[in-house]
Specification:
8 strands, Rossmann fold, 18 helices, transmembrane helix, transmembrane, Alpha/beta hydrolase, 8-stranded mixed β-sheet
Length: about 400
């Protein structure tokens, strides 16, 4: 890492070499921190670089994943940052009875999906596909991610914080779901966002939150995660990552060129930190595209927030509501014991650890996630006596609980 930071070499070749090295480090550290992308290792051993590049372009042009769109809207954070969201409205039940979704003037159950670090709302592709037309849902891009604007506070030099993301979620809810019961769903950083929201707005939680879904996330102690590295390597990463990321973020243009030049290496590293099994190459490419589109300076801005994240105490605000906590058994970024710790704080929660699954379990094993999510929605709807289409209950009926959390 010392060499890759590069000194100011006077030769063009030295600068180019330093830029390439910085790109390699940026790709590796950005992916380790974000935990989201993909690649197929065997293909890199047997297929030439040019062919692989063409294959990526073909997947970008024809891949069906991440193409679903809803009705767009914009909410404004307290610092003026434009937060982009999309709403999927339920359709009539097929018998001309829109009242199934709105009773006595009350808004239907709304699911609000918050995505993870270096991802976008498209990370929920399969859940969106399964629930489309059946449940009112809001998908949003966190500040500086996806279609949302760069955080104004960060552009002014302020650090990104999980508490700030919790307030951003409140702004989205106020704009896109101002009434009616809510189910809050969060993956990774999105789950932390939900915890911060609960800590800051307990009254709104008590009044409106009917259920919560945490997937691949943590309530704290992330600085102790080994990332699948030997103990010495994990310690070195924790010490070096913040300063290296700051340096890379300050040379964003140079590093972004390096990331593009090292796409094959990038794909290979990120697959290890995203999936626990082989996935459809188009799904892998979707994940890769999301992290590729996250600028290195955004990666640098958000990374320190995770070591400071400690929100276990906020979970008491959510206790007593239907809750689902899911994790992949091969998640190296937010290991399943972090999900177990969340479930311990929510005695009524269902804890599901999915075999052969990594950090992006909702993309890797969508049928498992969707069935358990549908079951959660059924419990939440029943708890607040909200209508729910039979199609959602049918989706939930076949799910098998792999593990249940109890006090």
């Amino acid at each position: 890492m010392t060499d890759s930071s590069g000194s100011g070499s006077g030769s063009g070749g030295g600068l180019k070499s330093a830029g390439r090295s910085a790109g390699l480090v940026g790709a590796a550290i950005g992916v380790l921190a974000a935990g989201a992308a993909a690649g197929v290792a065997i293909e890199r051993m047997t297929v030439g670089r040019a062919i692989r590049s063409k294959a990526r372009l073909a997947l970008d042009a024809t891949g069906p994943f991440g193409t679903l769109r809803g009705t767009p809207g914009v909410a404004y954070a307290e610092d003026g940052t434009a937060l982009r969201y999309e709403v999927e409205e339920p359709e009539p039940d097929g018998r001309g009875r829109p009242g199934l979704f709105r009773r006595n003037g009350t808004a239907p159950l709304t699911v609000v999906f918050s995505h993870g670090y270096c991802l976008s709302q498209d990370a929920w592709h399969f859940q969106r596909l399964a629930l489309r037309g059946k449940v009112r849902a809001v998908y949003w891009d966190q500040r500086s991610h996806g279609r949302s604007a760069r955080g104004h506070a960060q552009l002014d030099g302020e650090p990104a914080t999980i508490d700030q993301l919790g307030r951003d979620l409140r702004a989205v809810i106020d704009a896109a779901a101002p009434e009616g019961p809510l189910v809050l769903a969060g993956h990774s950083m999105g789950g932390m966002t939900v915890m911060a929201f609960a800590a800051q707005f307990p009254e709104l939680v008590r009044e409106r939150v009917a259920g919560v879904f945490f997937v691949g996330t943590s309530a704290g102690k992330l600085s102790a995660v080994s990332l699948g590295l030997p103990a010495m390597g994990a310690r070195a990463f924790r010490v070096l990552a913040p300063s290296v990321l700051r340096a890379l973020g300050s040379q964003a243009t140079l590093v972004e060129r390096g990331r593009r030049a090292t796409a094959d290496l990038f794909a290979g590293i990120v697959k290890r930190y995203s999936f626990g099994s082989e996935v459809d190459p188009a799904v892998a490419r979707l994940a890769e595209r999301m992290i590729e589109s996250t600028p290195i300076d955004v990666v640098a801005e958000f990374y320190p927030a995770f070591t400071e994240h400690e929100k276990a105490e906020s979970l008491v605000v959510l206790d007593g509501r239907p809750a689902l906590v899911m994790a992949g058994d091969k998640d190296l970024l937010t290991p399943s014991d972090h999900s177990a710790a969340i479930a311990e704080r929510l005695p009524s929660a269902e804890l599901v650890v999915v075999p052969a699954a990594g950090h992006l379990v909702m993309l890797e094993h969508p049928e498992v996630v969707n069935a358990h999510l549908a079951a959660l929605l059924a419990r939440a709807a029943d708890a607040v006596r909200a209508p729910l289409p039979d199609a959602v209950r049918e989706l939930a009926s076949g799910h098998e609980v792999t593990q249940a959390a109890r006090a």
